[in-house]
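User: Predict the complex with manganese (II) ion.
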Amino acid sequence: SICKTFNSRLVENSTSNPDPQNHNKVELRTKTPWNAPILWEGTFNRTYLEEFYRNNPVTIGLTVFALGKYLDKYLEKFLASADKYFMPGHKVIYYVMVDDHSKLPYIEYGTSRFLKPRVVAKEARWQDVSMMRMKTLADMLQDFIKDEVDYVFCMDVDMDFRAPYGVETLGELVAQAQAWFMNSPNTEFTYERRPESKAYIEMGQGDFYYHAAVFGGTPSQVLDLVRSCYAGIMEDKKNNIEAVWHDESHLNKYFFEHKPTLILSPEYCWDYKIHTEMEHVKLAWAMKDYAEVRDNV
Ligand code: 2GW
Ligand code: MN
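Assistant: Here is the predicted structure with manganese (II) ion placed in the model:
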C-alpha cells in the first residue's frame, strides 16, 4: 500500500482502475493526459530493464552544485549515497561543481564511477546561485557533457539516496513531481502568476508542479531546457522582475510548453516532513535549517 492518506485525492482523480475489486490497493495516477508514464514502484519491471541495459550499455551523467555552506554540509552524503544507489551497475560520471576545490570530499567511488570536478565562482545572492546553475549547465552540456553521456540528471545537493534509483528513470525528458503538490489542483501550484515574467503560467493551466531539484533526459533535451530557462531568467532580469521560485518557475514554464516524456513520482524525491510512512523512497530531502544555511541573503 503506497501511503493511503497521501494519495487519497489521486484515488478520486483516477481515470482507470485496473482492479476495482481490490480495495487494499491504493490506486495511483500512472499516466499523464499526454500518455507519459508516471513512475511508481510496481509500474516497471526492473529485471527486464536491467537485462535490456546490460545488452545496450549506457553512460549516465549526474550534475550537482555544492557552493559555500552547501559544500560543507551536503556534498559528501549526496555523493556517497549516489555511489551506492544511483544507477547501480551502470557507468556514471559525476559532474561536481564546487567553489573550493580543497573541500571536495574524499570518497572511494565504485567501479565504473568517475568524478569530474569543476571550480565555479559563487554568486553573491543565493537566488543567483540557484539560477546561474542553468548557465553553467548550458555551457558544460554544450562543451563536453553531451559527448560523454547518453543520459544526464541535474540535481540539488541537499538530498540523499535511500534505495536504488535505477535505469527505470531514463527517458528523453524527465521531470520530478514536487512531493508537496502531488495531490493539489493546479490553481494551488506556486507557478509565477505575473504576466510580465517569462515564467508566467495562467491560472487554471498546468499539469504538475515540477521540482527543480531533479530533472534529466538526453543531453540534447536537457540542453534545450537549460538554455531556455537561462534565457527566461536573463530576460526577466532585463525587465527587473524575478520569478517567485527562481529557476524552478522557469523550469515549470518549460515543462508546461514541452511536456516531459516521463514523470517521477514523489518516491523519487520525498520529503519526510510530509509523513514518514512513505514506502519505496529512493531519494529524500535533507533536513534543512534555513536560518543556518541562508545567512548570506
Ligand atoms: C541556496 C539558498 C540559500 C542559500 C544558499 C543556497 C545555495 C544553493 C548555496 O549556498 N550553495 C549551493 O550550492 N546551492 C545550490 O543550489 C545547491 O545545489 C542547492 O541544492 C541548489 C538550490 O538551492 P536549495 O537547495 O537551497 O533550494 P531549495 O531546496 O529550496 O529548492 C528549490 O527551489 C530553488 C529555487 O529557489 C531551486 O529551484 C531548487 O532546484 C529547488 O529544488
Ligand atoms: Mn534543494
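The chain has one domain: 8-286.
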